Amino acid sequence: MIGSKGKGLLTRMRKRFYAGDVERTIYRAEETAMRAGVGANRILEQYIRFLRASQPGLADALREVHESLNRCGLGNKAAAYRGFLPQEVTSLLRLAETKGLDTTKFLGEFALVRTLVEKQKRTVRAGLTVPVLMACLIAGILGAIAGRFKAHAATLHLGSVSVFIASHFHLIAYLLIGGMAFVFFRFPHRVPLLKRIYRVLDSVLVVGVINIMYRAGFSFTEIAPLVANQFNLGAVPSKAQALIDALVRRGILTPLEGADLLVALEYTKPEELLNILRDRKLEEAARISEQTGEVVKNVAILFSVIPIGLFLIVMFSVMMGAMSLIQ
């Protein structure tokens, strides 16, 4: 039998394993609840029932969310979703609750933007797995060929570097591919090939959050801390121009986007211009999948350079050794 500590460990492991699926499902439930005019707990209840047979692990994870929502109540979603949604989202909910807003409508609108952004990020990540797998396959084939030259190292007068590479081709190639893949998946904002795509998605989120909060009646002093914390801007700007300048410096907004947003915030009726900016950014985000193909092609070339480059080093040494034998 599993004791209380064992059950607690299993619960934490399940929560971590299904964290992404749970977050997406909560957004889906809130969006559906907003459109259907029912409580999100009712939607979650049906999700759990239908998932019980096909995905029992996810159903159990969602049951914890459902229990938390029932325990805290629909009027206290910031507390109910704490630990299930990112901190910046629960902070947003807490602000909405203090203003007495309809959190189902508020979170449902936020979910539309957040879901689109996360969906496009998953599309990019899924596309990146193809070059990684392809590079591993190339490394496997070329490593098997390079390994054959190791037995003739003395005859061909192979250099020590070439012998080392031929002897440990797979290990070196897989370590380099794995290291590069880690950087691509863990720090995509710092990778030149991915920076533009992630900048677009970040800007969609910024414009979307500001748009939703302004329409809900939030002031700039309430919006600025959330945006600053979400994008690690450091000190919270006290003026709109300072916030937008920080977003432009970080590359989250282009200079033109920053100018558009600043004009919108200083406009007497900012909601109209913010809606235009939001729609423009959503259209731009929807086209990300078209750009992903070109990015994947360039990434595939970059990853393939690793095994091919190692193989060429060995082959150059082999050719030099063969030429010395002929002479």
Distance from N terminus to C terminus (CA atoms, Å) equals: 76 Å
Strand content: under 5%
Shape: elongated
Summing up helix and strand content along with how strands pair, one would put the structural category as: mainly alpha
* Poorly predicted regions: none
Q: How does the major sheet shape up?
A: none
- Number of E-type strands: 0
Tally of helical runs? 16
Helical residue percent band: over 70%
- How many domains would you count in the coordinates? 2
Salient structural properties:
mainly alpha
Question: What does this entry look like structurally?
Answer:
The structure is a single chain. With 327 residues, this protein is mostly helical. The protein has 2 domains: 82 residues, no CATH class; 241 residues, no CATH class. 83% of the residues lie in helices and 0% in strands. The protein contains 16 helices and no strands. The chain is elongated, with a radius of gyration of 26 Å.
